Input
Amino acid sequence: MSGFSTLFLKEVLRFWKVAVQTVGAPVLTALLYLLIFSHALKNRISVYPDLEIDYLTFLVPGLAMMSLLQNSFANTSSSLAQSKMMGNIVFILLTPLSHHALFAAYISAACLRGLLVASGVIIASMFFVSVPISNIFYILFFGTCGGVILSSLGLIAGIWADKFDQVAAFQNFVILPMTFLSGVFYSVDSLPPLWQMISHANPFFYLIDGFRAGFFGRSDVPIEISICVVSLVSLFLSLGCLSLIRSGYKLRG
Output
């Protein structure tokens, strides 16, 4: 486990040394979203009226999960792409480090960054609104799965990309649209049937819906479905990443 712990520590120190940029800035961005969207839409959107939850409170879990997803992706994709393009990936590949340990170290560090940012968003939001917690297990489960899914996608993007522009394109044209169209700023139940069907085809929707259920005890789809979907997606992407790392695709070429 020394190889895993060393690479994990290296990845943690990589983002922690610039924590103002990698942790503080995303928290500030989420708070700006919270204040701007709540001010603009609080009188136009009704969410969970039977639970007496105002729009500002409703936004907090969605913004926390959105920040978690984006930062988990950014951590693995930027780290691996930078190592490839600067040529120092060879120092990792030459070590007697198994592909399982390499995968686990990158994913664990990215999940830690994502969870730190999400926690920061929730804690900072408590200065503006009271955030209830209904089920801590759902919060931790969907938060961890969200980190695994997006950090795995980040690894795939980092392995595939030959330049930073390709990583940015993957984030801007895949990750960002899927995140914004997953129910961060609205309840999917309020959409027309066609758009509900489209939203239900987006795995990010189940992450945000399940995560929000951990706070409010209310979800747009049965929580069992969300657990099954995110578990299967996590497993599928993890196996895909392990296969790519083991094959050496675009890493040893």
